[in-house]
Specification:
CATH topology: TIM Barrel
Mean pLDDT: 96
Number of strands: 15
Number of helices: 9
GO molecular function, one term: chitin binding
Organism: Chondromyces crocatus
CATH architecture: Alpha-Beta Barrel
Catalytic activity: Random endo-hydrolysis of N-acetyl-beta-D-glucosaminide (1->4)-beta-linkages in chitin and chitodextrins
Strand order of the largest sheet: 2-3-5-6-7-8-9-15
Number of domains: 1
Protein name: chitinase
EC number: 3.2.1.14
Largest sheet: 8 strands, parallel, barrel
CATH class: Alpha Beta
């Protein structure tokens, strides 16, 4: 499946509407705010604030009550000084119970007021409602919350990250199409889209194309599922991970039998920074022309995590995703997380290569 070759060419559509990059407090040491490559962003997604069950808010930003808020205020100030929007990330993985209770009929009004006060206190331009997962039973309260926020703050930016879709079961229902009228961005979290799962062969973390019955994930197939659900193309974004996945032996590339292999490292551990510093060498890299992503293949376990197959994003795959977004009239992209793409040992101006690629591929 892999092989040499370019990442395509041809006509490219108009610039995307957004590149929304997440900056999270627990990774602050990886990327000093003063070093952010602002040209590659339109929105900074500042994470994270979490909902308490009673509708109050936890504002430690995954640092501390005293350390988190000053960092968030610095990031808001820098975003505005550089002409970008600052959006607060609300929730995230593991916060489902807090969402369910805070958005309930008994707590929703207090929750909305606390969110409005948060925006006023920090200067946020909007809210990223990262409710994971939105179960069918959650949909009425999620809808009511989004409507209440939109009514109370009609000028606020509202964004919604949504899950990638298994191409073998592509129906997501009409709910997200109905929600689109309330949101400025609906962004597919199209990363970590493969694992040692029943019925799967080894596959990429964030393939653009090339999905099949035994490798049923790609940006293309997930985007189509949300378009089919009624989400307008101009409100739909794709996800780009500044991290990859590390597979254990015997898997050495995509499209093989799992045969006891597992993904032994991904987000945080397999940051783009760590991949470049601890794994990358041109001799190990292959460009997958079907999936439109690169990967590293090693004959024996390699690096700190002992990988034989590393799936990741690079400048070439970002260019391919940029063309896809522009040629399909999509809205833009989210990045999880910009902290993981910083290369401090490189010369000034070359330390955020993926953000530079995003600027060129999506925004020029």
């Amino acid at each position: 499946m892999g092989g040499a070759g370019g990442d395509g060419g041809g006509q490219v559509g108009p610039a995307a509407g957004w590149v929304s990059g997440y900056y999270v407090g627990y990774q602050q040491a990886l990327y000093p705010p003063s070093e952010i490559e602002w040209a590659g962003l339109t929105h900074l997604m500042i994470g994270r604030v979490t909902p308490n069950p009673d509708g109050t808010l936890n504002t430690t930003f995954d640092i501390s009550p005293t350390g988190g808020p000053p960092l968030a205020r610095t990031l808001v100030q820098l975003a505005h000084e550089n002409g970008k929007k600052a959006v607060v990330m609300l929730g995230g993985a593991g916060e489902h119970a807090g969402w369910v209770s805070a958005a309930s009929a008994s707590n929703r009004a207090v929750f909305v007021q606390n969110l409005l006060q948060l925006r006023a206190d920090y200067g946020f331009d909007g809210f990223d409602l990262d409710w994971e997962p939105i179960e069918i039973a959650d949909q009425p309260n999620f809808s009511a919350l989004a409507e209440a926020l939109r009514t109370a703050a009609p000028d606020a930016i509202l964004t919604l990250p949504v899950g990638w879709v298994n191409a073998n079961s592509p129906e997501v229902g009409s709910f997200y199409g109905e929600m689109a009228k309330l949101f400025d961005q609906i962004n597919v979290m199209s990363y970590s889209m493969a694992g040692a799962w029943d019925g799967w062969q080894s596959w990429h973390s964030s393939a653009l194309t090339g999905h099949s019955v035994s490798m049923p994930s790609s940006v293309e197939s997930s985007v189509q599922a949300y378009l089919d659900a009624g989400v307008p193309a101009a409100k739909l974004g794709v996800g780009i991970g500044f991290y990859g996945s590390c597979w254990s032996p015997p898997v050495r590339g995509p499209g093989g039998a799992v045969a006891g292999s597992t993904v032994i490292a991904d987000d945080n551990v397999m940051s783009f920074t760590n991949i470049m510093n601890g794994y990358y060498s041109a001799e190990f890299r292959t460009w997958d022309t079907a999936a439109q992503v690169p990967y590293l293949s090693f004959p024996v376990p390699f690096g700190t995590s002992g990988c034989t197959f590393v799936s990741y994003e690079d400048e070439q795959s970002i260019r391919a995703k940029g063309r896809f977004v522009r040629n399909h009239g999509l809205g833009g992209a989210i990045v999880w997380t910009i902290n993981e793409g910083y290369l401090p040992d490189r010369p000034v101006g070359q330390r955020s290569p993926l953000l530079r690629a995003l600027h060129e591929a999506f925004l020029q």
